[in-house]
Description:
Radius of gyration: 23 Å
Strand order of the largest sheet: 1-2-3
Number of strands: 3
Helix content: over 70%
Distance between the termini: 95 Å
Order of helices and strands: HHHHEEEHHHH
Largest sheet: 3 strands, antiparallel
Low-confidence stretches: 1-11
Amino acid sequence: MPKKVKENKKVIQKPFDFTLCITIFLLLALGIVMVLSASAPSALSTYGNSYYYVIRQVGFAAGGLVLMFIISRIDYKVYKRFYKIAYLISIVALASVIFPGIGKEVNGARRWIDLGFGTFQPSEIAKIGLIVFYAGYLTENKDKLKNFWGGCIKPLLFLGPPILILFFLQDHLSASVVIVAIVSIMMLMSGVRIRHFGSIGAVVGAAAVARNVGTCYFYRKR
């Protein structure tokens, strides 16, 4: 009987991206310097140590770099299997701030989750989850991206719930803008027509202008 020859499949490692790595380190260093510049006086008056906040930031940065290395070793195709779950996790994480004992209000905004030993913003989870979701969704439906409904309207409908939660429940405008910008860039890079985006932007812009005009008119009448 002929022997079965097993072929050894060699995993081809892509070359290390020095440009991306250097960019990450530069942004990280810039962020740490900005934290030191902005927090030194308050840290000195509160804790007696000008470097209190920046030391914490360096610790978080080190943990982030370790996670970055671990995640970079995982094949990105693995994430695609769970892109729908990533979307659900993002929504649940964002909405969890409304539950007593979980959500924490800071400076009038309820956008934090209290872990007991610290707090974090679930919007950071949502950013990663939505990137995974849209990467999986857009590749799964790449044949529909040139269509106005399938390529523009339908993907933006998925963006509605997280943005509404961020804007109305968490009062988190900056995170809303960042997520909208990320998703928009991903959609355009995946092949969604620019004119479709332009038409949606024109409608949203017109609605915003009409709202502002109506608000000014209402207060004038009062």
